[in-house]
Amino acid sequence: MLHKFGFFCRFSMPCLSKLATCLTDLHLQQSPLMGHIVNILSQRLSSIDDPRVLTTLMISVANLASPKLRDALINKADQLLDPTNTSTFNDSRRVVQFLRSIRNIHRPLLEKCNKIISQHIHTMDVDDISIIAGMYLFLQISTFDFRLAIKKRLHELVDSCNDPLSFTKLFLCLAPIASEETIERLEELAFLWVDDLDVQQTVGMVETLDSIRSKNHALLQRFASAIECSLSLYKPLEVARVTQSLYQLHYKNPELFKKLRQVNIHLLRKTVIPHEVTALVRALSLMPYSRLEEDVIIRVEAMVSQCSFTNLNTLASAIGKWMRKDESYSTNARSRYVSLLQDMTNCGLKKLQAIDRLDLLLDEVKPISGDWFEETLVEETVVILHRMIDQINWANLPDLGLFLTRINHLCPLLMERIASLAIKDIDKIHPSGIYNIMLPFSTMNYHSVQVDEMFDVCIQRITRTISFFDPHLLVYIVNLMANADYFPEELVRKIFSVDFLAKMDAQLETLSDVLNIRARIRLRDLNRNVCIQCPDLQVPWFHNDFCQEMLKKNNIFLSPAQQQIHTLLAEVLGGIEYVQAAVVTPYFYTIDFECILDKNMQPLPYSEPSTLLGEEVQWGKASPVNMEDKLPPGAQRVAVDFLGRRSFTKNVSHCLGEIAVKKRHLEILGYRVVQIPHFEWNSMELSTNDAWKEYLRKKLFSEPSA
């Protein structure tokens, strides 16, 4: 029958969709027969008018469809799906499944599917929610209204989850968005189910406990015991995942970790699958053991040429950890570790140079971060990006903007190209992509006439589509604009309205701890931006308590350069009583040092001079400077900040946006700002105490430039 493909041309499209489903159920998605179905579908796609038939075929042919056919299927699905038709729930779910399979975040179609799916949340069971939430997580899409609706529905389903599988799905979906009270209840229920869970369920539960940073030691102990008893049943990825989660949960059980290490090494010796090797190596690198067996290194060496960029980056990070742990490395610079890293670099360069399409390049490199990639491949990647500048278009602007920000490279040619295309095609770009387009310009403090025009059109686009954005995302966007010195009044007033802030408070309850604190910090930054630069908008400052709380958590250690500057400042100014260290300004900026100069540029003493206890700075013990304290006529406060490497872009010595914003704000508050870049302080010209002190005198006592 497989040789008589012509027979299937006489099938109706509904019959063909049923055949495709049968082949999928038999795991024959890659068969020649499925290839023939793909061919028929491409020829007769326009004749399909039933969304069920279309979406069934979409998920069956996803792996074989060409990019052109995939685009045609997406357009057809967009035409057939009707948000007002309540019977299209399963069709919408299949479309999301298709987009997940082809890794395509097609925002307009996903929004339409989400509208349809959201209408049915009140009737969903745990299985439905688990499937959809998993696909949304993979596609990195989620809305506040969706999270709130599934949170409510999952609460209703807690008592009906009376078997291990349904409870596991409930726990995995609800715990990350639940309140502390609900998490405690879920953990109590989980304690009762531990012994009934299979391996996959146990792994999922432990990873979720890690994601919510569980402190329930008794529950962790139960899971650890269950894992230890059934460790022989675990597959390589499962062993790697539980090892990583238990380590990140700071679970203390040396015997269990010793056993996990043995199992990791045993599985690593057997597997030949690159992503399994990578996961096991990463798990091993987390453990407090300095040496890696020779045969394990040999296995990694054999896998290098088969690894993706992401896998190479993970392996390099793991090897870097072993190099720091292995005492023999310091006496043997040409160790196996160095050789292995060089092989990875050569492999990465070959892969980079073989890529001839910008979209493929961005897909490969945009998830990567870390020292290895930045030290070995970033420069070559930037060269290739410039070579592919003509391939930049409105569709890949968000990914390119995000990547340039991540590598922290100021590339004027690429950024001007982004700006010009954004101006030209702003209405083609989905609102969700505009943040990433503006991101490198604001983060890296890059301005030009064309960039000003780009921000103007982006502001107009955001204002027209304001209803699209969840509260925290709108705060991110407007704060990004404010950092770049743009303050769209309509958007600012919207955010600081009572209704908006109440909605954001409700949303914060559905976010993870990490996203919650990040959103609150962005709101604080925007509140500070507006209060300092737009007092006419009369937005009140309401972050005192939050800032005090953050300061208490932010004890840091001064670098040797900062300690040296403190000592030399005291000598230059005439004594320790003329300099304050670890100063908190109004609106809770922190500055390294402060001094006061009178109208004749002479230092004035403080009534309570500060001293540093060793290297530690405890910001939480400081109170904000009262700028209303009366100074002699003509006197001025001087803020002195040391700017380390992280204050600049990596390829040129250009201050980042946050440094420029801080300087701008301090000057508005009445400070004169003295910045000491690391490359000046550590330069060859400054190598003696006398030279450093002369440098400080010029910085402090010279007339500030206009």
Radius of gyration: 29 Å
- Bin the helical content: 55-70%
Q: How is the biggest beta sheet arranged?
A: 5 strands, mixed
As residue ranges, the low-confidence spans are none
Counted by DSSP, the helix tally is 34
Strand residues, percent: under 5%
Q: In terms of quaternary structure, what is this?
A: single chain
Structural class: mainly alpha
Mean pLDDT: 89
- How far do the termini sit from each other? 84 Å
Number of strands: 7
List keywords for this structure.
706 residues; 60% helix; two-stranded antiparallel sheet; 5-stranded mixed beta sheet
Describe this structure in words.
The protein has 706 residues and is mainly alpha-helical. The protein contains 34 helices and seven strands. Strands 2, 3, 4, 6 and 7 form a five-stranded mixed sheet that branches. It has a two-stranded antiparallel sheet with strand order 1-5. Strand 3 (590-597) and strand 4 (603-604) form a beta hairpin.
